């Protein structure tokens, strides 16, 4: 149940982005749901491999290169999912940060941990 709620929260965060940034468009709720699912899968399966492959650059940049990886993955999902569009890399960079902040805030407000892991 928690996984479903997290997915819905991420879709809501994604659906809120066009209201904050004109360079991001989400055509409908279905596109937001699919994009949130694909983003979750990409962050689960592809991101760890990219982080491992770029470890020297990430180390030299004191971890800031992870923001670039997040932006590239966000931008890539926007190219892959129909109904979800990001205009360019820098828009994806800022959108990925905003998406993370909105998702974190909504998760903090809506999901109660109650001390259970």
Give a description of the structure.
With 117 residues, the chain is mainly alpha-helical. Helix content is 74%, strand content 5%. The protein contains six helices and two strands; from the N terminus they run αβααααβα. The longest helix has 22 residues, at 89-110. The model has no long low-confidence stretch (mean pLDDT 93). It holds the Pfam family Phage_holin_4_2.
- Coarse morphology: globular
Strand order of the largest sheet: 1-2
Rg (CA only): 15 Å
Helical percentage: over 70%
Report the β-strand fraction as a percent range: 5-15%
Question: Could you say which structural class the secondary elements and strand pairing correspond to?
Answer: mainly alpha
Largest sheet properties: 2 strands, antiparallel
Number of strands: 2
**Element order, helices and strands?**
HEHHHHEH
Number of helices: 6
Instruction: State the oligomer.
Output: single chain
Uncertain parts: none
Give the rounded overall mean pLDDT. Answer: 93
Which SSEs are present, and which pair or pack?
Blueprint: H1 2-20, E1 24-26, H2 29-45, H3 47-53, H4 55-60, H5 65-80, E2 84-86, H6 89-110
Antiparallel strand pairs: 1-2
Keywords: Membrane, Transmembrane, Transmembrane helix
Protein name: Phage holin family protein
Transmembrane segments: 26-46, 53-77, 89-111
Features:
2 strands, transmembrane helix, two-stranded antiparallel sheet, membrane, Phage holin family protein, single chain, 117 residues, globular, 74% helix, transmembrane, mainly alpha
């Amino acid at each position: 149940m928690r996984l479903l709620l997290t997915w819905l929260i991420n879709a809501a965060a994604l659906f809120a982005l066009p209201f904050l940034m004109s360079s991001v468009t989400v055509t409908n709720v279905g596109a937001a749901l699919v994009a949130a699912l694909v983003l979750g899968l990409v962050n689960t399966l592809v991101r760890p491999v990219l982080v491992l492959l770029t470890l020297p650059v990430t180390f030299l940049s004191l971890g800031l290169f992870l923001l670039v990886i997040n932006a590239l993955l966000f931008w890539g999902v926007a190219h892959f999912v129909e109904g979800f569009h990001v205009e360019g890399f820098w828009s994806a960079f800022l959108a990925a940060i905003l998406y993370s902040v909105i998702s974190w805030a909504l998760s903090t407000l809506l999901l109660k941990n109650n001390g259970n892991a």
